[in-house]
């Protein structure tokens, strides 16, 4: 087994020969390179379990949820019961204790349903549960993680501000410590997934801290959303991620107890570590959206007859399909290798940036080309391509914009920063 922060479950598959001889099992993902053979039996089982959940619970309702602009909250208990929330965190805290490849495959299948479903799980897992696990006290971990893992409590992550997105260091939200050790929080956060339905918010704020060179530090706080002075306001007018809860958070003299702070957080590095976890999951998730669009386009192309034969038999559509499946395979190889490195503890944030940047970009292109292959019906909610296409435009921007990840990679290869 490879060593890493979470145990790998590397049980050898006992049905490799049967699996390799069954191309029908691989055709659904267009797995021309048989990437499934690089997964363990347990990893495939986890993926197939989530796939069945999405087929049964998500796909029948998600189109209407998108039209209605409603996140399907009724799915939250099942997401918790199935172990999909915080899946790569330790079993000691009520989590599934899966490896990071399995966590990635969960994200892939959830986003095959919709980016809004994956965003919910991603925020809950990587941006709420992870910082509590990484920076929280033992009491905070023992209290919050089992509840969040079961979906009995919902969390959100407050970093981005109305005027500070790609430059989080400029945040103006402040937490001031009082003489008795308690805190008073003031400020606002923007574009917060799960914000209007959360029970707890992981909020990042500047504090007066004399032992830092700048005189301030950035710390994480656990903020109950029923606290006096806390307000969450739904973001209206979205044309993307409509089946997702997105809010603005306002903190007006919110009083917090002394133990609300995440004691091991400090500096901008802490929230950026959380974003790295989320970006890893996104690199897998968007492949699920791409797979959904490819499968839909392939099925439609084989059944839609024009000029006397299925349109999949025309060269221009076959080129579209060939490009789609090629990019999906490349993206899967990239995320799978990254997942193995993450489990081994040898990955870097720059590698995560590359995977997020590449896979979101190719998924966006695949969704657009699938919509075009579908023709007029591609704009209908009963088909997924245009919904995925609109969602992916948000994913292209959040958790670090495409352009910011370009600069991260550029700095990694040149040694020269180009952010200013």
Q: What do these coordinates show?
A:
Helices cover 49% and strands 14% of the residues. The strands form two sheets. Strands 1, 2, 3, 4, 5, 6 and 7 form a seven-stranded mixed beta sheet that branches. Strands 8-9 form a two-stranded antiparallel ribbon. The two termini are 43 Å apart. The chain has helices at residues 16-20, 23-27, 41-68, 76-81, 100-113, 115-135, 138-149, 269-303, 315-344, 349-374, 385-395, 402-414, and strands at 155-158, 174-177, 183-193, 200-208, 216-224, 230-234, 246-256, 305-306, 309-310. By secondary structure, the protein is of the alpha+beta class. 47% of the residues are buried. Strand 2 (174-177) and strand 3 (183-193) form a beta hairpin. Helix 3 packs parallel to helix 5. The chain contains twelve helices and nine strands.
């Amino acid at each position: 087994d490879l060593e890493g922060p979470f145990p790998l479950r590397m049980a050898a598959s006992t049905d490799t020969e049967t699996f390799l001889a069954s191309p029908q099992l691989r055709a659904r993902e267009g797995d021309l390179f048989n990437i499934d053979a690089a997964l363990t039996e347990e990893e495939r089982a986890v993926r197939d379990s989530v796939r069945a959940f999405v087929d049964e619970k998500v796909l029948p309702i998600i189109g209407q949820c998108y039209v209605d602009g409603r996140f399907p909250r009724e799915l939250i208990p099942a997401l918790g019961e199935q172990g999909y929330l915080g899946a790569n965190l330790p079993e000691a805290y009520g989590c599934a204790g899966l490896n990071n490849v399995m966590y990635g495959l969960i994200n892939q299948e959830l986003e095959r349903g919709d980016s809004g479903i994956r965003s919910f799980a991603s925020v809950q897992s990587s941006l709420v549960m992870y910082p509590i696990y990484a920076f929280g006290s033992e009491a905070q971990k023992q209290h919050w993680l089992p509840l969040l893992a079961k979906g009995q409590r919902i969390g959100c992550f407050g970093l981005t501000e109305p005027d500070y997105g790609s430059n989080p260091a400029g945040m103006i939200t402040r937490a001031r410590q009082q003489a008795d050790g308690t805190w008073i929080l003031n400020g606002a956060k923007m574009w917060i997934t799960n914000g209007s339905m959360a029970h707890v918010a992981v909020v990042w704020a500047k504090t007066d801290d004399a032992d830092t060179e700048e005189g301030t530090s950035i710390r994480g706080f656990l903020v109950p959303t029923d606290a006096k002075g806390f307000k969450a306001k739904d973001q209206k007018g979205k044309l993307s991620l409509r089946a997702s809860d997105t809010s603005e958070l306002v903190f007006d003299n919110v009083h917090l107890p002394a133990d609300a702070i995440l004691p091991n957080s400090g500096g901008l590095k802490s929230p950026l570590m959380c974003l790295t976890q989320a970006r890893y999951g996104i690199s897998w998730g968007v492949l699920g959206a791409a797979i959904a669009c490819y499968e839909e386009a392939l099925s439609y192309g084989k059944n839609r007859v024009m000029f006397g034969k299925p349109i999949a038999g025309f060269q221009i559509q076959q080129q579209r399909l060939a490009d789609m499946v090629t990019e999906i395979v490349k993206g899967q190889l990239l995320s799978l290798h990254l997942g193995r490195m993450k489990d081994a503890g040898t990955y870097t944030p720059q590698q995560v940036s590359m995977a997020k940047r590449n896979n979101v970009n190719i998924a966006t292109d695949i969704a657009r080309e699938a919509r075009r292959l579908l023709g007029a019906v591609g704009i209908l909610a009963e088909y997924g391509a245009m919904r995925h296409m609109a969602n992916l435009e948000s994913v292209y921007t959040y958790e670090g914009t495409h352009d910011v990840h370009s600069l991260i990679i550029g700095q990694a290869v040149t040694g020269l920063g180009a952010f200013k």
